[in-house]
Amino acid sequence: MRDLNPVFIPGPTNMPDRLRAAMNIQTIDHRSPDFAESLQPMLEDLKKVFKTQHGQVFIFPGSGTGGWEASITNTLSPGDKVLVACYGMFSHRWIDMCQRHGLDVEVIECEWGTGAPADLFAQRLATDAQHSIKAVLVTHNETATGVLSDIAAVRLAMDKSAHPAMLYVDCVSSLGSMDFQMDAWGVDLAVSGSQKGFMLATGLAIVAASPKALAALEGARCTRCYFDFRDMGNTNKNGAYPYTPPIQLINGLKASLEMLFKEGLDNVFDRHFRLAEGVRKAVAAWGLRLCAQTPELYSHSVSAIYVPEGFNSNELTDHAYHKYGVSFGVGLGEMAGKAFRIGHLGALTDVLVLSGIATIEMAMKDLDYPIELGVGVAAAQEYLRSTSTAKA
Amino acid sequence: MRDLNPVFIPGPTNMPDRLRAAMNIQTIDHRSPDFAESLQPMLEDLKKVFKTQHGQVFIFPGSGTGGWEASITNTLSPGDKVLVACYGMFSHRWIDMCQRHGLDVEVIECEWGTGAPADLFAQRLATDAQHSIKAVLVTHNETATGVLSDIAAVRLAMDKSAHPAMLYVDCVSSLGSMDFQMDAWGVDLAVSGSQKGFMLATGLAIVAASPKALAALEGARCTRCYFDFRDMGNTNKNGAYPYTPPIQLINGLKASLEMLFKEGLDNVFDRHFRLAEGVRKAVAAWGLRLCAQTPELYSHSVSAIYVPEGFNSNELTDHAYHKYGVSFGVGLGEMAGKAFRIGHLGALTDVLVLSGIATIEMAMKDLDYPIELGVGVAAAQEYLRSTSTAKA
Amino acid sequence: MRDLNPVFIPGPTNMPDRLRAAMNIQTIDHRSPDFAESLQPMLEDLKKVFKTQHGQVFIFPGSGTGGWEASITNTLSPGDKVLVACYGMFSHRWIDMCQRHGLDVEVIECEWGTGAPADLFAQRLATDAQHSIKAVLVTHNETATGVLSDIAAVRLAMDKSAHPAMLYVDCVSSLGSMDFQMDAWGVDLAVSGSQKGFMLATGLAIVAASPKALAALEGARCTRCYFDFRDMGNTNKNGAYPYTPPIQLINGLKASLEMLFKEGLDNVFDRHFRLAEGVRKAVAAWGLRLCAQTPELYSHSVSAIYVPEGFNSNELTDHAYHKYGVSFGVGLGEMAGKAFRIGHLGALTDVLVLSGIATIEMAMKDLDYPIELGVGVAAAQEYLRSTSTAKA
Amino acid sequence: MRDLNPVFIPGPTNMPDRLRAAMNIQTIDHRSPDFAESLQPMLEDLKKVFKTQHGQVFIFPGSGTGGWEASITNTLSPGDKVLVACYGMFSHRWIDMCQRHGLDVEVIECEWGTGAPADLFAQRLATDAQHSIKAVLVTHNETATGVLSDIAAVRLAMDKSAHPAMLYVDCVSSLGSMDFQMDAWGVDLAVSGSQKGFMLATGLAIVAASPKALAALEGARCTRCYFDFRDMGNTNKNGAYPYTPPIQLINGLKASLEMLFKEGLDNVFDRHFRLAEGVRKAVAAWGLRLCAQTPELYSHSVSAIYVPEGFNSNELTDHAYHKYGVSFGVGLGEMAGKAFRIGHLGALTDVLVLSGIATIEMAMKDLDYPIELGVGVAAAQEYLRSTSTAKA
After folding, report:
1. Is the distance from CB of C28 to CB of C188 less than 8 angstroms?
2. Binding site annotation covers C2?
3. Of B238, B185, B236, B183, the residue nearest B55 (C-alpha)
4. For binding substrate, which residues are annotated in this chain's numbering (chains A, B, C, D) (predicted)?
5. Least confidently predicted of A127-136, A349-358, B82-91, B302-311
6. Paired strand residues for C282
7. How confident is the model at residue D323 (pLDDT cuts 50, 70, 90)?
8. In this predicted complex, what is the ipTM?
9. Which of C244, C257, C243, C304 lies closest to C279, judged by CA?
10. CB nearest B381 (choices: A352, A361, A379)
């Protein structure tokens, strides 16, 4: 029965039936006109989600990490300097990957719980008169800490010193759940995946590249083949793929776009904001603290929540899983043992988010956390019911 | 998104993925050996759910109401007197159906919220020296009022006067969710369906007949054809049907039986008891009252709950549906406007039931019911967490 | 692997993925506005398939046989005389059912392989000056013999003698596959099901009643309850059902109507004609004979084919099933052992029908039938390829 | 309706319902014990399909091409010399990929239609006294030409000169359809995917590495990150992934292994041999010629068939697609316009393969190919029926 329960991990998300049906089509020929003709329109539609007019979207079979590898290897060369602010687990992964590909990574260490440090970027870039820094890498939504960074501010910092570095943004767990404005924010490479805002199974790395990023292909000497933008772009032009495309997921993506556009992107973002705010009301009622240090940094797709001193968050998530059959996000990296996470993105409703709050509340009570049953739920209920715009 | 929410109607229930997959098979030939060979073993397995050794089970394509028609028309004749206690909506339907088939229906009117009146049955049967009463009809679980009747007591009452009337029991919304003991309770005809305890789509009427009921076929002169036991039994013997069988649902039923037996019937009943008790704790915390008049009468598959004076339960369920996308049971018959119902049967977990309690709590608050948010949830949480036997 | 093969039984048919997905929806509340609002439009759409403007359509949970029971019991009274021509298995079933419901059945015995005898009807009706005959019952497409009857001719015969009897037509295996014109042919009751032309799972009896038939409700004294038109019509008006409706199948029916209308009914009929004609070319090439005696009688949804003297058709279909994993229709009734049947209705293509022809050809060869491999296939190929209107 | 037709491309293959259901599970937590505990057993089971005891299996989210990239980058360094025989489209792709990763590729050009040239390998390796050649790369089943190479012979050639080069084998379109013996043949890296013999959707690159290959990780300096064996192996040990795993496909793979083992690998191979041989009988009957030059080279998963002089194979496959709704493989590379391909791997039966033969036969007739309708089908029928071991 436990497979009836929703998951509250920050992705993959719960999948709506409609998308499950779309991913459950029988094999069709990926070289057929039907597939070919549907590919370009979908890539165009994806641009609306990235909010880019001049960028180009690439869909690779793989997980989001593959999208990062594509971004780096298609646009940079070994020895290139990149500037990364490290404020969570996923920033760590970018750094590691860059280093493996021979890049010279300069890290700005930030406290976990903070976001992209626009001011520090500005300072550092101002000192880089030779423009040796080729790229600035930031994570829009840091899943480990539940921090949403201000990408526009980073762009502003870069523009202030008129620095030509490109801006790479990991929007895996934000795209399709929170506003993302590729063009307006001057993002050059935006990396996402199928299993978060798109509410699909894992398996697609979805990357958007700006004209400037595409121009960088020419000189980029990082080795690449599977994740090559040119191979992908050239074959996509004819409705094809450089290798066998995952047609079921691609069909799911088409249906996902229809769902997102039907609900309306702004409504999708509002829904995520409300669900997140509901969770935050519960956190406050429990007397607990978010990892994200200030309200401006709150993610609307995931909340990372410190457990009280003397408690182990991993025991809490284990307990919730085994006793109630519900998965929450564990504390990652520095947060291991110290924080648990509630994913509230993708296919989720007021009703289901309350079941998650109620469940973790019981689990905390079971483990003698100093909380009172129902208080978190009540706070979330009050917020959700009073802000719902659904017509009754 | 609302289609992600569980339903809290007292059936059809939420369906587990495993059963949905089983009902989603491509067409197979219903005259093939594969189908034929699987039919009898499944009918035998069903007997374990009815807890009958000597009875015979029939599966008709149709809804539960069809099972009643089958029971009546195969075993009775126009003019036969039947004794029915009326204590809810579904008793009403039996009465109407009996009358349409020309039976002489004697009704014992009971207050809604009470159950099968064993004592009144005993009194009435004691006066029927000529044994003109051919059958006693009771509803095991009255869905309209959330009342579970004591069938063993009815049998005892019948046996006391050594009355030969047969005992017909509607167990549509109890079988597979609460204990039902056909042989031990001396039930002659037991009527159920696919969409409740079996967690399947609607479409199968599942009927069990005792040897005595089968013997009554001989003289029964009610007209019947589609629902004829003999046609069904004779063809079933050879793994066939008198007409095209709904193979997808039948395949689902096979999978449902596997699920029930794997969980263990007693564990299934315990789960339903706990979920029901959790709901009842919430009801008490809200200061509301169940329609079922005493604890012995509490149904563990559905709770019917009176709204406070001055409120309209239909508005409440409408509101919950439109604003939160969750379906609860409306008040039926006498209860229209006065009570709403929470179905807690079939495929359901602690976690999901809390989402239902939280939702109706919000809906009540929205409509200015004198309740405090979170109190019902908290009461249910405390009960569910402290009684859970899941290993943590 | 054998479950990959199409079936060639005359229903249930192969189901398209789109309809399987539509029937695989999670439980929704059948009392919700969403369900309610979709019911009437669907009933209206069904009228387009029956080609009736003034008739009313009823959908009962059950198989097609339930639709017959509904038709008879809602419009006739015990003792009423009905005239049935018996020219196949399914006519037999009508007769049996009428008799069980106390009707006075007058049978015109016809040779199997012939169709509805308009001339004999005319003769008989002409002699019925008292208009004691209340209804004429015919099977549009006799599945046992693969005979399609001329319903317009029957109506003409009835009109000739200005006889007021109603016309009942079994169109279970014709509706949605071959032209059916309820109004133009003066049909009063038309009975179909979900598992043939609608390409769905078994489980819906779909009945259309003319205004005259509806008027007959008043005086009809056959007992009925589950299959009562009035209960169904009255609740349907409000988007509801007298009992729990099979929402998954009803959702499938909605999708089926969309598919049929998208292909266009005339194109659907043309496709069936071509597939049937392809099969008939194969039969001719094998030197075998159809049960249907003349080309005017050929059914386009099923072909019943005599095996040569000295062969047993049941062995042939058994062999095809066990060795090749393909189901064909067995010989029914008089045809048992003498004929096998190829169902070519519902979701089927040129390509798949050829696989059926090739398979039965192999099976015949295995059993030493005097046929040459490939000749049937070649004849069908030639016909299908030269008549295909698909744009290449 | 055309989506009812099977595909005859050489992968992705038709998918059985059982596997579609397994890939259609709702999201589960990839960090949960349930997922973790099922991963290692599945990797062990995969070793039985590769027929390796000491090798290690890695499953990457991606298509087969990703598996090649993993194999090359984890075990080789820029500048390393590799020896590749080029006898088809997919050998071309290996070569291109190796070059992009900075390897020194020495190509032995072979005629298309031939297989891995064991003798030429032997000659070349014998001259490489310094053992500068680090790896020999061959394609087991060349999908473009329908050629199956003798890998054991290649190993023998390598062993003759006691050359320490590693042996890399592309078995994407052979594994699970034809015998593959990793250990016995001394294969060091074997690359496959989910969408061929495993009958699943595209999206998993499945790679097996020998102990020798794993030892080579140490010194391999090709850049890699996403496809890193060590990251994968280290996380897999704990039932985890270095990034989000595609749980639906992985669940499908588990079910696929169950299907393969239940049928029995030898029976699976026999089935493919028979289906292939059936197709080849048809080809012979048409008077056409396979690209594979000798019977020892015949692939049992795909046949590439030359069209007669003066005809264009691309027109043929286009025509079959548009007119009959059936996809065949187009001629790739040198074969474009000259040959079409019939994929006969994965989930396929005697019955379905006949539908493909019948279809392409019609298409050829439509385009005035000098063939007679039915002859190919008849030849295949005779072969298939007389060799079937199915019990009748």
Report:
1. no
2. no
3. B183
4. 341
5. B82-91
6. none
7. very high
8. 0.96
9. C304
10. A361
